[in-house]
Protein 1
Amino acid sequence: MKINTKIENYVFDESTHKALFKLSSNNIITSIDSPISSGKEAITFLGHLEKTPLVAKIYKIETSKFKNMDQYIKGDFRFRNMSTDKRDMFMVWASKEFKNLTLALKYNVSCPVVIAREKNIIIMSFLGINDKSFPRLNEIDFDLDKIYPQLIDNYAKLLYGAKIVHADFSAFNILINPISQIISIIDMGQSVTYSHPKSKFFLKRDIINIVDFLSKKFPKIEITYDMFLEDLKKKKVELYGR
Ligand SMILES: Nc1ncnc2c1ncn2[C@@H]1O[C@H](COP(=O)(O)OP(=O)(O)OP(=O)(O)O)[C@@H](O)[C@H]1O
Ligand SMILES: [Mg+2]
């Protein structure tokens, strides 16, 4: 495993190092090259398998934010037997994102292709060009007529196909290929199954977030909560029947 020396500043703990070396000996990823983003719960890196760019999302072991993470795990029947010990949470979180992305892919949601999960690390396809991630939806001008139908299509597949509520659906978690204007939904660590007791609350918040963003971006066009929800339901019928 080749780890760029600058990355050593991130000081991975021993268990993360071991996980990285396991991924490398299994020929899943051969180098970790540069940080893409350092978020609240995870650090995202650009890596490679030989010449193929990949993303390694490494959930941080030490983070205060984990205090809030409980609510997304408790109530998700898939994790009912999991330990809620703070030290195990980062692994649960990575495994949750892996499962959510896998399910989303199965229902043709446009999102990164997950390749492997080892402890607190997820390896997935890189969405970008020339080692640079595609911009987030809030970072670029786009044609609403091209994007709105994709938002509906992807969210409907996630909600009614995969039966998952994203729970952090915002312009920050949507990448856009600036050339094709094709969007991808990312960041599903916090996503919950529809049966989760708070899923309706999260769904409402997701719709409010995106509608609010679009209304500010396109003040002359009327985009409402009811309209978005209606379009999701219409899409459901179109995709899966009644
Ligand atoms: N598959 C990918 N391909 C390219 N870039 C990616 C990919 N996944 C994530 N990124 C980049 O890394 C950033 C952070 O990813 P993500 O949102 O999954 O992590 P996060 O820990 O939730 O970060 P934050 O707290 O900032 O939201 C994204 O905004 C995006 O720029
Ligand atoms: Mg994010």
Protein 2
Amino acid sequence: MKSCKEIIDLLSEYLEGDLPGDEAGAFETHMALCPPCVDFLENLKQTRALVRSLRCDEVPPEVQRQLRTFLDRATKRPPKRGKRT
Ligand SMILES: [Zn+2]
């Protein structure tokens, strides 16, 4: 089974529909067993929907750049849910 980190790495491709069948199967198997990754996927979906709802000509280049950096980081960071401080 794939680790959470591997799954997070695949999230963007999964959402784009770019994952090959066997990878998508492994992804879905992990999702079925790992609630934190499901939450992370939901968050990412919502963020992407928000980004898509913005019209590019209304977003200053600087904000677009920051958004891209944020999304890039978000898809590379493993979920931190359940960790006690
Ligand atoms: Zn996971």
